[in-house]
Amino acid sequence: MVKTSKYTLYTAQENFLVGYPVTIKAQSNAPDVNLFLPNGTKIKATDHVGEEFTFELTAEQAVYGRYELRTDGGDKENRSVFFAAVSLADSLRHATSKGDEGEENRLIGFSSRLNNNIDNPPEVYVDGNITTMSFTPERFKTEETTLLEYGILFHDHLFARIAEEGWDETKTFNIKNLQFVTIPGFTFEISFGNIKASANNSGKEFASDFTQPISWNVERYNNGPAKVWPEIPDTKEERAILDSGGTVSRPDAPEPKATDFDAKIIGTKVERDGNKTNINIYFDSELDTREFGFGFDITDQWETLWSEDNKQVTLSIDYDKFPIGTIANLIIFRLKDVAGNMIPGPEYLSFSYPDEELVSVAISAIQGGTYEIPAKNQANQRAKTAWVQSAVNALIPEGNGSVATVIYDNGYKVSVTKGQITKSVTINVTMEEREESDFEPPSSYVSKPTPTPKPIPEPFSTESIWPRVEGNIGIVKIDDAMVNEMITNNITIEIKHVKNIGAYSMSLPVESLTDANGDGVLNVKTSFGTITIPSNMLSNLPETFGKEAVITIGEGDKTNLSEELQAALGDRPIIQLTVSIDGKQLDWNNPNAPVSVTLPYKPTEEELENPDNIVVWYINDNDEVITVPNGRYDVETGTVTFRTTHFSMFLVTYIEKNFNDLENVEWARKSIEALTAKDIIMTDGDSFYPSENITRADYLYALVRALNLNTAVDDNFEDVSEDMYYYNEIAIAKKLGITLGTGNNKFSPDLSITRQEMMTLTGRTLISLGKLEQPDSREVLDSYTDKSEIASYAIDSVAALVKEGLIVGSNNKIMPKNNTSRAEAAEFVYRLYNSYK
Description:
single chain, flat, alpha+beta
C-alpha cells in the first residue's frame, strides 16, 4: 500500500534544561507517539487525550543530547521532530523543532554572568527581532556555581544573512533587560570587548535589575565544534542545490577554544596611595584585557588599570571604602589570556593590609595612650596588669586584627602580634591616688522594699481533687472563694494522679493572685512536683478584672534539647512551668513574687556523696542554660527545691567543679566547689585563685545569690556597668538598702573588700530579712583585743554576726581591716547558704 501523506506532529518544545524534570507535550493525529532519549531508550506517553500526548522526564533522564518525537502508525508515513537538552559553554549546539524539512532553528552558545531566572529571563534581540534564550548552569566545569552558560536561538533567515556575509567581527547582537546572577554582597563589572556593564548587588531594592543593552562580537563566541557554521545544508535552497549535484560553501568557523586557563596569579599586594587603596594582582602571562570580570563586597566603585604588558591589574578603591584594618573580598569570574584560554572557575581572594603595617599602626596607637590605673583596680598586681591589658587593647583601631599582650617586669611591656610579625614597646603607667573608704554609719535603718524570699508557712491540711482530663492534660478549676479559703487557712491542693497525663493545670481568677503584700501562699501538689504560689504572683499585671489564669506544671520535652544537654541531663527530671491569661501564654516575670518548686528526686550513690553538686538549670529564651543558684537537694525529704520569679523549662543535673589551685585551702574546698557548681561565686576557668582578695562586687554578687534576694530594680551606682555579670545583684542590694556604696553614688566594685565591710553588708542583709536581730549592746565584742579598730559604720553588724555565731575571729581578734580572701569569703557564704534556706 502506498502511503501518500504523513501523520501530523507538532511540539512547542524547542529545548530544555539538562538536569531538571520536564513535561513535554506533543500534538499528533497518529494512533501513538513515542519519545526517544539520546541513548535510544523509548519512552511511552504518560497521558494521551485526543490528539495530545504528554511525556514526563525525570531529572536523571534530562541529559545532554538530541531527543526525537516519532509517530507510530501504519496508515500514513511516520514523522519525527527533534529538540535538544542543552548546556552551552564555548560550543554550538544543533537543535531542530517544528518540522524536519531542513527549516531547523539554530542555537548559538555564549558565556555570561546572566540571571538564571526562568520566569523573567533577559530579552535577546537580533536586528530588532526578539529571540528565544536557552540557559542552564554548566555542570562539567568548576564554573558551575558562578559562571552560567546561556544560548540564543536564531531562525533561518538570520543565519542565512550570516552565511552570506561571512564571519565579520563587527557583527553584534544585543541583549536588553540584562540581569546579573546575584551573589549577595558583591558588585560585579563585566567587559565584552570595550563595552562595560555593572550591577550593584549590595542588597538594595531592585539593585539586581540591569537594563542597559550589551553588545558582543559574534566570532568571540562561535567556538565550534562544527567545521563550518551554519551546517550544510542549512536551508531548503541549499538542500536542493546539493540534490542537483551542486556545492555549497561558506567560511570556516573559528577553531574551538581551550577551557584551561594557563595564566596564574603569582602575587598580590595592598598599598595605600593618598586617598586611594590599590589592590595589585600579578599574573605570569599576558592577559586579554578586553575580557574580565571582577566582583567586590566593599564597594561598587573602583578603577581598573592594566599594566602595559597586561600582566598586572590594579583595582583602585577609595580609601574610606577599604581603610586599614578592614578586609576586601574579591571574586574573579572571567579572565582570558591572549591565546584564548578561559579561566576554569572563579577565583576567590581576600585582601587586607600587610601584617607589618597593621602592627605598626597598633603600636603607634598604644604609644600615644596615657595610662593611669584607677584606685579600684589596684587590689593586686594581677588586677593592675589586667587593667593595663584592657586599656591597651581599647586603643588598637577597630578591625586592625593585631593582638596586644601586656606583662609586668619592673615596668609594663606590650607585645603586639599579627601573623608572623611581632613588635614590642614599653609604656609609662601611673597610679591614681587611692582614697580611704567613705562609709558613714547610718543614723537608722531606713524603710526599704521588702526583700524576697519570705518565709513559706507550713501547710495545715491537704485537699485532694480529681482533675478533668482533656487530651493528656489534667485540669482543675478553683473559684475566688476557694482560693481565698486555701490561702487564709494554708490548705494544699493535691491534684490526684491520672495515668498517661503529661501536665496538670489549675484554672483560677487572676484577681485572686494580685494581693499587694503577698503574705499568703497557694500550695499545689502534683505527681510532677509541688508549686507554692504567692498571693501576689500576678500583682504586676494591668487590667486583671474578670480574667482567668491557668498555671501549668508538666513534664518538659527533652527532644528539643541539644544532644550535649540531653547527655548531661540523662534520666533526671525536667519540668515545664507556664501561665496563661484568657488562653494566651504569658511571659511571666515578677521579681517580688518568687514561686517555690519542689520536685521528687532520687540521686545516685555518687550524687549522695556530694549532694551540694545537685543543681537546677533553666532554659532561657535564647535556648541557653542558666543556673538557678538557690536550687538544692534535701536529703531528708528526697526532693529538689528551688525558687523562681519567672516560668520556663527547669532541669535537675549534677555538676562537679574541680580547680587546680585548692591544695593549700583544703578547709574551704567543699564550700568552693559547692558554691561554684551553683554559680553563686564567679570563677574563671580551672583556677579559683583562693588566696587572692575578693572584690566588693564578687562578694555582694555571691551574697545576693546565696540568700536568693530579689526585688524589682530601676537604678544602680554610677560605676556599675550594665554589661557586667554582677549588675543585677548590685542593683538589688542597693534597692534593698543592703549597700550604701562608697559615696557620691559609687560602689567601687573592683576594690578588695575588708572583713568589716563584708560583715556590714552581711549583717544589713540578714537584719532586713528578719533573720538577724540588731543587737541591744556591743558587749559581745569586749573579748576581742582589736575591738577599737572596728569602724563605727560596721560595729553593729559585726556584733550581730558574732552574737549569732557566724563570726568567731582568730586569737581573740576580729581583724576588721584585713582584706578577705576568696577562700575565706566562700567558706563564710557557704555557712550563710546553709543557715538561711
